[in-house]
Amino acid sequence: MGRIKENCPACDAQAKKVVAELDDKSRERFLKYSYLKYDGLLTDWLSELKPVVTRCERCGHCWYQDQPSDHQLSLMYSAGNRLHPEIKMTRDPSDRMLREVKKLKSLVVEPEPSFLDYGSGFGRWARAAVQVGFEVYAFEPSKLRGAEEEAPFSLVHDINALCGNTFDVINLEQVLEHVSDPFEVLNGIHAFCHAKTLIRVTVPNILRCEEGRNIWREWPFNGRRVHIMAPFEHLHGFTPFSLNNLIKRADYKTLPFHMLLRHYPITAIRNLFRRIYPPAGQTKQLMTSGHLSISED
């Protein structure tokens, strides 16, 4: 059976509005998506799960109020097909990833820093961290996505295997939109932090999605690409405000503006304008779980 998420998962507000639910046309698109992406698996869930997207009236966060169980999600990801198999996949990090990880390393005080890639997927960010000089650990719950014969990092599929360890940098790249309770996940990350740990979080920005103004007209599938709120792959749609609210609820401290401006100037500048023009903000944050004492050199 699924789980019901009544209050906003980001800011915990109660005021919400339904923005997408199945009608005759969208049901046809749902069935097509279920067949192409998951060999019809999601079709079998309609008797117990209602694909309804709710939006928070306070922070704009969107989420599926009725969500699959962990077991169902595991079955879904195991059954997943690529919509465009002609596009080649790689485990090698991009130049952008390498530049980003180098920035993170420059902010860390420790001479031999450790790096946890939480929700590592195919391990591209973990490989980037290895190349830059981190001691790297990767957590990927899916044994299929995280399958590695000889990974150049320590790979675990059970987060409990890392209990007792703390890390200098923790990376959550495009993770929180996939989990049932992002607050619970972020709150749990505290166990792997010390006072100087730097945490990097990114999620898709629902205000800057490819669907644009057609976001709910094209939901849940437009026949060409995966929707930003594809059922039930993306359980959450973040805005810059909802991500910030979630971070504050989970008791993290974001990087001060002067440090963000120095190391991430585009992010800092865009964050300045987000209150005037919300889509200008980024759903990317750098934060700590303790007293801010990372390197400013």
Gist of the model:
By secondary structure, this protein is an alpha/beta fold.
Describe what this molecule looks like in 3D.
Residues 291-297 have low confidence and may be disordered. The chain folds into 2 domains: 3-87 and 208-236, no CATH class; 95-203 and 251-288, Rossmann fold, CATH 3.40.50. It is 27% helix and 19% strand. It is an alpha/beta fold. It is globular, with a radius of gyration of 19 Å. Strand 6 (114-118), helix 4 (124-132) and strand 7 form a beta-alpha-beta unit. The N and C termini lie far apart (51 Å). The longest helix has 15 residues, at 24-38.
Top keywords for this entry?
297 residues; 13 strands; Rossmann fold; disordered C terminus; 27% helix; 8 helices; 4-stranded antiparallel beta sheet
In which range does the helix fraction lie? 25-40%
The proportion of residues in beta strands is: 15-25%
Q: What is the fold-level CATH name, i.e. the topology of the largest domain?
A: Rossmann fold
Across the major sheet, the strand order is: 8-7-6-9-10-13-12
Give helix and strand order, one letter per element, not per position.
EEHEEEHHEHEEEHEEHEHHE
What is the count of helical runs? 8
Q: What is the CATH first-level class name of the largest domain?
A: Alpha Beta
Ends distance: 51 Å
Helices and strands in order, then pairings?
Blueprint (H helix, E strand, L loop, with lengths): L2 E2 L11 E5 L3 H15 L14 E4 L5 E3 L1 E2 L2 H10 L15 H12 L7 E5 L5 H9 L2 E5 L14 E3 L10 E7 L8 H8 L3 E10 L33 E2 L2 H10 L3 E2 L2 H7 L1 H9 L10 E5 L9
Parallel strand pairs: 6-7, 6-9, 7-8, 9-10
Antiparallel strand pairs: 1-5, 2-3, 3-4, 4-11, 10-13, 12-13
Helix pairs in contact: 3-4, 7-8
